[in-house]
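Progress note, project year one: complex with nicotinamide-adenine-dinucleotide.
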Amino acid sequence: MGNGIKVAVVGLGFGASWVAAYQDHPAVAGVAICDPDAELRGSVAERHGIDATFESFDDLLAAGGYDAVHLLTPIPLHVEQTLAALDAGVHCACAIPMAMSIPELERVVDAQRVSSAIYMLMETAVYSNSALYVRELAETGALGDLQFLRCAHYQNMEGWPAYWEGLPPMYYSTHALGPVLAVAGKAASSVQCLGSGCLPDDLRGEYGNPYPVQTALVRLADSPVVCEVTRCLFEMTRGFQERFDVYGNRMAFEWPQVDGEEPVVFRVDGEPLPPGRRSRPTDIERVTPPDFADRVPEELRGHVRGGAGGNFRPHMVHEFMSAILEKRPPAIDASVAANWTAVGICAHESAMDGGVAVAIPPFGA
Ligand SMILES: NC(=O)c1ccc[n+]([C@@H]2O[C@H](COP(=O)([O-])OP(=O)(O)OC[C@H]3O[C@@H](n4cnc5c(N)ncnc54)[C@H](O)[C@@H]3O)[C@@H](O)[C@H]2O)c1
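Model obtained:
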């Protein structure tokens, strides 16, 4: 290994799909893998030519020599592993969710503040080609004034590991919320949520959540804009989608109804309405968002994919590595991540209390 960043990918289910992008990043000097499943560990090591393998996360941290970890472990492990990494001064990227309670979020934000290491929430939906495209539309002013945001994540987790059963749908809502909150560039300030439908007793798991679906309205700090978010995990018929719609007064973007189709943009001009004219003509067009390959190093361009979704991995690996090199907070740092994650936690609290407005606590103040 040279002088570059030494990274360990921890958890090799979804995690296995990230290894190649780390290996190809020019700032990375070496990649290790960690998973208690010996067979899986062996097969990922062989496929990617990796020598450094660890059975346990504790062994990995105790071995030293790794600058960064990317946690892709089961949800209930995220907080303790994040805290262990930050306490050891190891940069930490973590799959969503950041945590499942407000005190846990506060613990991670506090640990990051006193650590020499950075924390990045790996919210993949923020790095789809469509999300990058709409952020650019917002930043260049093409959308005009932002007026409304809508987002949803529909997924049926039947047959997935037991920790999904009964998980309040909003606890895993940043795939929906992340892109629109990133476009707005504002923190969420409060949320009102209702639960919908009825989850059978055998799917309520350990969380006591009775709802297959939750739907909420989120207010943004220092902004007149409201965001509508819907999330389902079980027992609602719908093809998988992580989707968002963004409406400005000059332009809007809508995710296609079915993945595989192209998104739609709506445009109106800003000229004075001609006398006698009722309503403004709306130009409607299907678009293919660009792949933003020029935003990643040449070595990673082979990982970039076209289409509405694209491949978030090269963009996210590059952001994590760049933030480490540049000694700056990453785009989704601990306080941003805590705000986004807290929306879902507070939304569930609201749903369990008949839809009352719940304030999102401040983080990182
Ligand atoms: N688009 C996305 O952002 C996206 C997609 C899929 C999964 N995820 C998240 O990624 C994480 C992993 O998802 P998954 O479906 O692969 O989960 P999983 O439950 O299938 O487990 C992943 C791996 O973690 C390993 N593991 C268990 N305990 C471990 C430990 N102590 N240390 C190291 N490894 C350990 C398991 O052996 C398994 O191979 C979850 O948090 C999930 O929420 C995110």
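Residues 10-14, 34-37, 40, 57, 72-75, 77, 95-96, 124, 161 surround nicotinamide-adenine-dinucleotide (CB under 6 Å).
The chain has a mean pLDDT of 96.
No further modelling is planned for this target in the current period.
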